[in-house]
């Protein structure tokens, strides 16, 4: 059996992010996690939306699907449903995932497909040169010259409230921990969400590596991963970013439920059934 190394997942296209961007570390962590799991690049697809972080499919040697803004999750769910044997990893940013794509996040959590969703949160729309995003703190930007007026969303709290079956938070400044979290997320059977604090060095001077490090604390060792309310209490603590696995629940996946439906449908069909026999079930 082939043993894959991190570099085996690297494409010939060099990453083109700004110097110091946290996404470089996330890419390295992801390639390291895929190597730890020995994922075959030919059996793996990375799906993205639009944004700086959504360039991942270009920089990796797996199959890739660069979809449209906010629609990475439904594309990923479709791929996994059509071919359950492939590994599907979805990547995006805070604008892509929690603004136009926020509704898909809710319903992906409901469906619980066996895919991984990594969101790099730099609290800004960086690809379009610096507008405030759903996670932005009170900052002055090109579209909010007198300070942003909306309340910011809390992505991890969102995931917990949607009962996402695996929820973790990492930091691009800690690649070792981040690789471990992504490895656990891909290994989880169900919809896994990894929120990554990934500072933008070009368009958001309020969120820096130093400012994030000051607020980071590890998830307490005695934290009950199956207690969603306990996870919410950690996430709601003002001025602290807890990193690590915050919530984990094993439950049937979308694939499991689709197989059940398929079995029930086939049980009502003759041995040599046709498309007409299938359609009759819905008449």
Mind telling me which CATH architecture of the largest domain this is?
3-Layer(aba) Sandwich
Catalogue the unreliable spans.
none
Oligomer: single chain
CATH superfamily of the largest domain: Thiamin diphosphate (ThDP)-binding fold, Pyr/PP domains
The percent of residues in helical segments reads 25-40%
- CATH fold description of the largest domain: Rossmann fold
Q: Gap between N and C termini, in Å?
A: 49 Å
Biggest sheet strand order reads: 2-1-3-4-6-5-8-7
**What's the β-strand tally?**
8
Q: Can you tell me the overall shape?
A: globular
User: What share of the residues does DSSP label as strand, in percent?
Assistant: 15-25%
Number of separate domains: 2
Summing up helix and strand content along with how strands pair, one would put the structural category as alpha/beta
| Rg measurement, Å | 20 Å
Q: CATH class of the largest domain, anyone?
A: Alpha Beta
Largest sheet: 8 strands, mixed
The number of helical elements comes to 11
Mean pLDDT: 92
The SSE string, one letter per element, is HEHEHEHHEHEHEHEHEHH
